[in-house]
């Protein structure tokens, strides 16, 4: 009798579970919203686990300075997710300047958080390439698995083989055609693509996923990343817009954390994919599903603005499960936390404005007539004046070169979708060099004018002409 009763209970439980699964997965169920159907369309049933190969990860924070707290917070958070997912330390490489955790401005010394009230994500993060060792040269050597090519640091590289799966997460400031590294170096899109091509030619991975958080990050892959490389890239923004910082000082007036910190704690794209990863069993969620979740959460149509999350390369990889690249912290009876509605949007500001917000908040918090207040006021004015100076110089140079407003406007125009930023990357690099030789550092903010320099090359303006114009305006 007891055995019969147990069988009846088991059958009833299975029927209930099956019913809930139908309600969860069947888009025809009337009670499910359109948003839910949209977000669940890429979520398959359990997929067979990774049978061969090794997971590798490269995590890069490309900035330095407390004002850029969020980038290192993003990378540290990503490390913790992958670590919990089962990736081994020897297969994860971290680039970050490492000047945030014990910075004098950090209200919690030795602790880094990635959201208001969040837990510490800094503990246990390996210091592979920090400080002056977080260089472009080391980055390329690490990607290529070239141990003899690295200088300083831990010496760890992506030693992946033909059956391995590689995940790269890069969070940073960016501009058309470039992303930055902590020591005032830049990674040009053509150089990065060439490194990835060499990695592919060496048969050093089976598939690769590249998540990129930066302004105009789509320009790093637009018209450049061949599908044949078997790389699936997701970017925080398209090729013409900024990406967004979030969890900023004014993010939530009811949170004590928002007053405790005068910096943005994360980036909208980055925290969206990571918070999504923490809510699901990644053995059943696809890359494509996460793309849709993140795209929805950071959408431009949200009340506070956002960016267009984009995908490039071999988009067929979007059907693969996240477990293949990130492992998973198994969540029993995973039911997708945001079922029934789109995931909550994030209040955010453009990365270009995050610096100004930091200085403004420091000024607001500082006691009247205090040294701290005077310093914050000075920093804010210097940043504003520096931006105005670069803008004016670039505008005067373009006016000198072209004269008419119509021609000047042409230099700020994006090329058609599917075309790279520039045809001649050597010309672009030379134009930037000529500007800096005559006018001083372009600065992180000034890099937003990269499209103007690229369009000079596309319009066949010569280096000689650019040099004459820059010398006339700046000297």
UniProtKB/TrEMBL annotation:
Tell me the Gene3D superfamilies matching this sequence.
Answer: 1.10.132.130, 3.40.50.1460
Active site positions, chain numbering: 173, 215 (nucleophile)
Gene Ontology terms for molecular function = cysteine-type endopeptidase activity
Native species:
Erythranthe guttata
Q: Where is each Legumain prodomain domain found?
A: 378-474
Cellular component per GO?
vacuole
Q: Please give the superkingdom of this protein's source.
A: Eukaryota
Pfam families in UniProt: Legum_prodom, Peptidase_C13
Question: Which BP terms in the Gene Ontology apply to this protein?
Answer: proteolysis involved in protein catabolic process; vacuolar protein processing
InterPro entries (UniProt xref):
AE (IPR043577), Legum_prodom (IPR048501), Legumain_prodom_sf (IPR046427), Peptidase_C13 (IPR001096)
CDD domains according to UniProt: legumain_C
Tell me which UniProt keywords the record has, alphabetically. Answer: Disulfide bond, Glycoprotein, Hydrolase, Protease, Signal, Thiol protease
UniProt signal peptide: 1-19
Q: What is this protein called?
A: Legumain prodomain domain-containing protein
Q: Which family does it belong to?
A: Belongs to the peptidase C13 family.
